[in-house]
Amino acid sequence: MSYADARERFAEWGVDTEAAIARLGRIPISLHCWQGDDVVGFERRRGHSGGGIQATGNHPGRARNPRELRADLEFAFAMIPGPHRLNLHAMYLDTDEAPDRDEIEYRHFAPWVDWAREQGAGLDFNPTFFAHEKADDNLTLAHPDPAIRAFWIEHGRRCREIAARMGQELGSAAVNNIWVPDGFKDNPVDRMGARRRLEESLDAMLQARHDPAHMLDAVESKLFGIGVEACTIGSHEFYMGYAIRRGTLLCLDMGHFHPTENVADKLSAVAPFVPGILLHVSRPMRWDSDHVILLNDEVLALAQELVGTGLLDRTHVGLDFFDATISRTAAWVIGTRNMQKALLRALLLPWDRLRAAEAAFDFTTRLVVTEEVKDLPFGAVWAEFCAREDVPSGPALMADLDAYQARVADRG
Ligand SMILES: C[C@H](O)[C@H](O)[C@@H](O)C(=O)CO
Ligand SMILES: [Mn+2]
Hints:
With 412 residues, the protein is α/β, with parallel strands linked by helices. 43% of the residues lie in helices and 13% in strands.
């Protein structure tokens, strides 16, 4: 179906496809750098605990250095319509030096900023509290040893400074997301002590004020991780309380809750109490497996809540998946485009009609409308969006993905 015909079909429902396309074109999605190299990073020191996260698979083409990762990202950006952001982790520094985590400085990341400026992309940032000898006890900011806590506090403090400078340089606030793997494999007897230490460390780390136009703090909770099955110190309740008290963003990772929980439902529940939300859009399969996101019910529901509640302006959409069994660039492209497709579908819903039906307790109409509109030609609107943004779709996209993968397949 042509776009012109599709526009008319949507108009019959009172939906303006032009407005939806325009809104979608202003929503940046933050691509996570760690999908490109299986969460390895570019530090010269290696070989320590991974904090319970690990990519599985050995598909050829893993980016081995910043140059390769940037080339892969440039390709992915060319396949993804709309404004771009890159979510960097501190272990992806670009330098010949070998600073420890408590020694990193802005200059170690400056090449990323230069590159982002060239690309017209924003940057987000994350301290790296894993893959380091001082994280091998599965305790960092909550460690009982004050020297280890001090080390990680200094790392986190520096990361906030680096993120703030990135945001200032690029004229777009960098979200600096704090996730620590801290927890216990078996039942601890002093959960309270560990949580108090985490709270104190976070307070020390977040003491310096930074301009929110440059940097926004976020905290990310988790239900459990491999190796910390009995207790995660930074649980949802912990960080929900912390984000409210400190006024930070709250990060909701779709893989960090019990599988029966509905992350979409949480948005309107937490939004009144925190200044904003960071999403890690992911696909847990039985656990926090970080599969590439599909255009599935969970992602559609998330996008629908973002649009329907008006929370888009207060939400930063980031991705968090990593799959090393398929082309890493294709994973980025397909996952990101799925998030955008979900947002487009949400933007193309007849919201006024649905809200009126619900307000009138006419749940029959609400059901009929939600099911009937599923037959509308969303694909034609998506194809039009891609064409206007000069990115391929359909078979042309597949050909480009295959050609790029063939180019990187001989990386050692
Ligand atoms: C690499 C990220 O910091 C990490 O995936 C974190 O966001 C997470 O979700 C850990 O399970
Ligand atoms: Mn996450």
